[in-house]
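Every protein is a chain of amino acids, and every chain bends into a shape of its own. Below is the pair of lines this work produces for a single protein:
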Amino acid sequence: MMMTSKADTPINAENGGVITKKDLVRMFWRSLPMEFSWHYERQMHMGFEFMIGPALKKIYKDDPEGLKEALHRNLEFFNCTAHVSPFIGGITLAMEEINRANVAAVFGDVFQLLDRKNGVSEYPIATSEEIKVYLLEKLDCLKGKNLDELTEEEKEKCFEMRIPANMYIWATMNSADQGVFPMDTAFKRRWEFEYLSVDDDEQVAAIKDCKIPMCFSDNKASYYVDWNGLRTEINNILTDECKVNEDKLLGPFFISKNILDEIKINKDKIDELEIIDEASLTEDDKDLLKELHQKEKSFIKAFESKVIMYLFEDVMKMRPEKIFAGHHKNKGKMIFSEICRAFEKDGEKIFGIEELEHI
């Protein structure tokens, strides 16, 4: 007879979860090398990925594309006191797992409370025995009373549960995330949806002065282009030439605001040093300038790992020549390493974009 311990039982089994206590213990032990995984651009991201990697593979066992996306999004910037990283890892795994779950099942009985009239749940649900005991202990108006002593009004407070008019539930959903479980239609109609465009005015305004480096030669970036201008041109190609749906387009913060801000700070420092006559530069100035130019290279690499990889692997996997039209026109091979090499040499021209202003 096969025995199963509590450590092997999924913590959230009732909602289709697969992560067990044993998986969390394993994650703790894998967090110990966290301090040895530093990276200049994204700090401890590799250690974090190492920590949660086995659990992610378990969550996305039958979905290789979903696993690829999960590994990619969890390789973002990560930096914290190493001792608390398992706590953050646990929250991350819970979010990954609930994204894969049937959200209507996760809500359970609360599903019924989402039908509201004048803001209050129209159809209450009965409280469990545990909640009744809790309410008798915590509600001042019920303290010291037994259930059989309650008035009808008090029973309503203890036996029934509703969402009050002053309680709002906000949620976000990425419709392009292939790992998300499809939502039940009856569940969806109980929500009010507001679609946020990839060209949301507020977000576009936040990146209007953001520039990104292009083409690394002679140990420095050859020029900069406007990030929003480049993003818009790529999106135009995706919609007009590639016939891609809107949820696959590049949003203003596809390159994170942190990276865009770092690029701006780095460029400002370079500009300050380059206006100084070369004869007046100290050795420390020259070393700093060299270091700042190397950062430009890391920013170009970040563009490759984020934008180019996304376009190549996810959006135009079957027809990469459509989005990398300039590279295709130059008889370039449609493999990721060759496209990146061409990008470092030709910049935005690999997309067939010719009219962006160089800064």
